[in-house]
Automatic annotation (TrEMBL), chain A:
PANTHER family to which the protein is assigned, alphabetical: TRANSLATION INITIATION FACTOR EIF-2B SUBUNIT BETA
Cellular compartments annotated: Cytoplasm, Cytosol
GO cellular component, one term: cytosol
Family label: Belongs to the eIF-2B alpha/beta/delta subunits family.
Domain of life: Eukaryota
Gene Ontology MF annotations: guanyl-nucleotide exchange factor activity; transferase activity; translation initiation factor activity
Self-association state and partner proteins as the record states: Component of the translation initiation factor 2B (eIF2B) complex which is a heterodecamer of two sets of five different subunits: alpha, beta, gamma, delta and epsilon. Subunits alpha, beta and delta comprise a regulatory subcomplex and subunits epsilon and gamma comprise a catalytic subcomplex. Within the complex, the hexameric regulatory complex resides at the center, with the two heterodimeric catalytic subcomplexes bound on opposite sides.
Protein known as: Translation initiation factor eIF2B subunit beta
Organism: Melanomma pulvis-pyrius CBS 109.77
Positions of region (Disordered): 114-169, 197-221
Keywords linked to the UniProt accession: Cytoplasm, Initiation factor, Protein biosynthesis, Transferase
UniProtKB/TrEMBL annotation, chain B:
Main location: cytoplasm
Record field: compositional bias (Low complexity): 1-11
Protein name per Swiss-Prot or TrEMBL: Translation initiation factor eIF2B subunit delta
Sequence ranges of Basic and acidic residues compositional bias: 18-37, 57-71
Length: 483, 471
């Protein structure tokens, strides 16, 4: 097992370090073993590691055949997923990267067809459910495809895009907004994530996407304008560097992972008012940053359930130091103060106290492991009873989650999503007599149904649980749902 | 009242040569006081328990108003006793209060728990002293067990009691002899509802004793009454309740219970003895882990037991078919006052449409009502929340701590001790740990209450309470 330093326990950081030097196949092996041993666990580390690995896979890919690249990524993805099927985030990331590749390919195709004949374009895209050219320009930062999709044929252009994107591309006016012809419900949030226009995963996409496309009114001009431009660009350079495009897209995905917490935190002031009492649980970086962002302006009180027995150490740690120790990968420069240092009163309570305290709580903020397409979520054990107690007290439940945790999976079999952990953390094995006679169970996750959640806050903004399926549709392509 | 503080304050002021002039008795007293002061300082918590004497007295007089009239003129002697160490405490208290701003339960923080016999009034019977410490360390835990243990200890107290000349047993025993015992027990841990009920009953018995009865006979009668009380209200009631409860257990059932209740345990074991095939899920929570003992006992009897912690409760509930809960008390508005977490379990169970059945002797019924778990509750020391192993797991965090918390330790950076973790938490200004012992389960989650009077809906609790107190 490649291991950075002798002192570093195998984990995300050691994996990332070794990834730089190790070739792809051993790295995949390494990652699967880390996943299997739970040495990389929880959504963020898994996502970071998966994306880094896929970046490497793409960069080492030889050849220009997109189909082969897709196959290669799928093959790696399948191995990773089977290594730890309950870290849905791994699958999410693989699907996002696959989507990237498809975008690039579609771009290319469209560009070619544009160059060849504009007349054939409509038919082509219609057939493929790929409405490339008119949409390219309106893709946002958040969708990793933006870059890959935007003016793919011109390397200079994409270069400049690349530089600007990390900063504030999302503020960029959605120029050439042919997407407005799209389902009206999607308008506001989709300004940020127009990816959906491309990826329309479910069956209706075929019919719905082209409608905008074919509509002759208003946008028609824009579309043709756009097409012209694209055609120009494609003419200048017909071959496309598939690999570079995809890699750029993956880097954007990495940026998204990095920034999602801050973007979520930017919403904090909209949701937390002064003197509120907020209940939360587990040691979640997203939640802590969210609360910290609000703490800069407002004073409120936090009640923190400690999530015994699997997350209590991290929880106490984050309360005391503001840092999560278990994720070795957490960058050292990414230091922030604990909530208490920001002048916020924090009460740590055992999980059993949730009901007793709930009558005083104004808002419940839950961290999550994975968000499912139906609006339900998988979160650390105890989340279900917290959400239920909140519901029974009419307390709003807010779930804070990056879009990368949003998974296209529907929970047909809930038990399948629940991981059971080490019984030794419930009853230590020294108590051999007890462990032998009694079945000790330690479920690590809870499934929280969508009706217990009032609001999701992602890096795209706030959403009702019932709306999540749209965001899923925006981020994953139907071809990739089953890997 | 003012006398003891004066004598306390005097010795340090007196110059060294003068010290010899103090009478031996006074010297002894002074030394005892000094020792006490030292011990009190060693202990992290403020020894405000001594203050409780007067504080709780006031409460006491509110609670059973009827025996105020039976109290002749007790004030002087008792006051002087319980007040001896007061002056020292006053100095320490403000320091503690800086941190103790408890948002939710600040009204409950008044009495720190007594963990030693130091400062106990000398009237307190040794059996009570021992019992009190068993209370405060949770050796005796559970409202029935505490009540029975208290009554048994009272038997010892009564046995060794001698009515002073000039008073009658009925008038003297309650107010002068039992009250200090009760105060001490209360300082160790607040009285349970069942204990309160039993004390009220006992005082009633004592008052009713005919002053003309000879002391020996009166004492014998009282002891007999206590035995009868335990037999009727606890043992026989337990038999009846478990009999009813067993009928609710059917073959193939999965009985879920929370924490540990003696009556639930009794019922489950009885059903098991009767040969009903069923299994049990025990849900437990930190820091007491009472369910561990229960699971161990049940498993030793050959039952199939599964053990979850409260975080896994929503999984546990899925597999269960019935929920049996013990009670600390049943409130008159039909709500269940029980170990904290019981409300969560019954909430989850009732959302799964599982029957939630509370097993409760009528001695635990109270006329008190409660709407939430915050107004009336028992706060337990927060340091109990972090077990030794948890503290150990936190030790590596030391280098990451904010500077303000670390500065004290930097000097002797030898090896970190688990006690340090508590100091960190204590030291960090805005961080507090919170522990209460009970919560209130809304009546709508409870489908049935089984008492020795039969099975009834929670709305019938006040009826049964009247029934049980009037007879």
């Amino acid at each position: 097992m490649a291991q950075g330093a002798a002192t570093v326990a195998p984990g995300l950081s050691s994996f990332l370090k070794s990834l730089r030097t190790t070739p792809v196949d051993p790295s995949v092996e390494h990652f699967t073993s880390l996943l299997k041993r739970r040495q990389i666990r929880n959504s963020r580390p898994c996502a970071i590691a998966t994306v880094a690995l896929l970046l490497r896979v793409v960069s080492e890919f030889k050849g220009r055949d997109a189909a082969k690249l897709v196959e290669r990524i799928r093959q790696v993805g399948r191995r990773l997923i089977s290594a730890q099927p309950r870290e849905l985030v791994v699958g999410n990331m693989v699907r996002r990267v696959l989507g990237l590749v498809r975008e690039v390919v579609d771009e290319n195709l469209d560009a070619e067809t544009n160059a060849a004949s504009e007349g054939s374009h409509n038919q082509h895209s219609h057939h493929d459910s790929l409405t490339r050219p008119n949409l390219t320009s309106s893709i946002s930062t958040f969708s990793p495809l933006k870059h890959a999709a935007a003016e793919p044929t011109d390397s200079n252009l994409s270069q400049s895009e690349n530089m600007s994107e990390s900063g504030e591309l999302w503020r960029r006016p959605p120029l050439l907004t042919s997407h407005t012809s799209y389902a009206p419900a999607s308008n506001a949030p989709l300004v940020h994530s127009l990816f959906g226009l491309f990826s329309q995963p479910e069956t209706p996409s075929n019919s719905s996407t082209p409608t905008g496309h074919q509509s002759p009114d208003g946008k028609g001009m824009l579309t043709s304008l756009n097409l012209e431009r694209l055609a120009d660009l494609s003419r200048s350079k017909t071959t496309i560097d598939l690999r570079a495009e995809v890699m750029d897209g993956i880097r954007e995905l990495q940026d998204e992972l990095e920034q999602s917490d801050d973007l979520i935190a930017a919403n904090a002031l909209d949701h937390i008012h002064s003197n509120e009492i907020i209940l939360t649980h587990t040691a979640s970086t997203s939640v802590q940053k969210f609360l910290l962002a609000a703490a800069r302006k407002r004073k409120f009180t936090v009640v923190h359930a400690e999530t015994y027995p699997h997350d209590h150490t991290a929880t106490h740690g984050i309360l005391l130091t503001g840092k999560k120790r278990e994720t070795q990968g957490d960058d050292e420069d990414d230091v922030w103060k604990p909530l208490t240092a920001a002048g916020i009163q924090v009460y740590a309570i055992p999980d059993s106290h949730v009901f007793a305290i709930m009558s005083r709580v104004n808002k419940v903020i839950l961290a999550t492991h994975t968000v499912l397409a139906n609006g339900g979520l998988v979160a650390a054990a105890g989340a279900h009873m917290i959400a239920k107690a909140a519901k029974d007290h009419q307390t709003p439940v807010v779930v804070v989650s990056g879009v990368y945790k949003l998974s296209p999976v529907y929970p047909f079999d809930i038990e399948e999503l629940i991981e059971y952990g080490d019984a030794g953390s419930v009853v230590p094995y020294e108590d051999g007599d007890f462990v032998e006679k009694v079945d000790v169970e330690n479920p690590l996750y809870d499934y929280v149904p969508a009706d217990l959640v009032d609001l999701y806050i992602t890096n795209l903004g706030g959403h009702a649980p019932s709306y999540l399926y749209r965001i899923v549709a925006d981020h994953y392509r139907s071809e990739d749902i089953t890997l | 009242m003012s006398d003891p503080p004066a004598s306390e304050a005097a010795p340090p002021a007196v110059p060294a040569p003068a010290e010899k002039k103090i009478s031996p008795a006074e010297l002894k007293k002074q030394k005892a006081a000094e020792k006490q002061a030292r011990r009190a300082q060693q202990k992290a918590e403020p020894p405000a328990h001594q203050q409780q004497g007067p504080a709780t007295k006031q409460k006491d007089s509110k609670q059973p108003p009827k025996d105020d009239r039976s109290r002749p003129l007790p004030v002087r002697r008792r006051a002087s006793q319980s007040n001896v160490p007061v002056p020292k405490d006053v100095k320490k208290e403000p320091k503690k209060e800086v941190k103790q701003v408890g948002l939710f339960f600040s009204h409950l923080y008044s009495q720190p728990r007594q963990h030693s016999v130091v400062g106990a009034s000398k009237d307190v019977h040794p059996a009570i002293l021992a019992l009190g410490l068993q209370y405060s360390s949770y050796v005796i835990c559970g409202s029935t067990a505490r009540m029975v243990a208290m009554l048994l200890a009272f038997k010892a107290v009564i046995e060794s009691y001698q009515t002073p000349v000039g008073t009658s047993l009925a008038r003297h025993l309650t107010s002068h002899h039992l009250s200090p015992q009760i105060d001490f027990l209360r300082s160790c841990r607040p009285l349970s509802i069942s204990m309160g009920n039993a004390i009220r009953w006992l005082k009633d018995i004592i008052i009713k004793i005919d002053p003309s009865t000879p002391e020996a006979e009166a004492k014998r009668e009282m002891l007999e009454e206590i035995d009868n009380f335990i037999r009727d209200r606890v043992t026989a009631a337990g038999q009846l309740i478990s009999g009813y409860a067993v009928k609710k257990i059917e073959a193939g059932d999965v009985i879920l219970t929370y924490g540990s209740s003696s009556i639930v345990e009794q019922s489950i074991l009885r059903a098991h003895r009767e040969g009903i095939p069923f299994s049990v899920i025990v849900v437990d929570s930190k820091p007491l882990f009472e369910g561990k003992q229960l699971s161990r006992k049940l498993a030793n009897h050959g039952l199939k037991v599964r053990y979850y912690l409260i975080t896994g409760a929503s999984h546990a509930v899925k597999d269960a078919t019935k929920v049996f809960l013990g009670a600390h008390a049943m409130m008159s508005n039909g709500r269940l006052y029980s170990r904290v977490g019981a409300a969560l379990v019954s909430m989850l169970a009732s959302s799964q449409s599982l029957p939630v059945i509370v097993l409760c002797e009528s001695v635990k019924f109270t006329e008190r009502v409660a709407l939430d778990s915050i107004v009336g509750n028992e706060v337990a020391p927060a340091e109990e929340l972090l077990s030794e192993s948890e503290r150990e797991a936190l030790l590596p965090l030391k280098p990451l701590l904010p500077q303000s918390l670390r500065k004290g330790d930097e000097v002797e950076d030898t090896k970190p001790e688990t006690g340090d973790v508590l100091k960190w938490i204590e030291g960090s200004e805005n961080l507090q740990m919170l522990q209460v012992l009970y919560d209130v389960t809304p009546a709508e989650y409870i489908d049935m209450v089984i008492t020795e009077y039969g099975s009834l809906p929670p709305s019938s609790v006040p009826v049964v309470h009247r029934l049980s107190t009037n007879t």
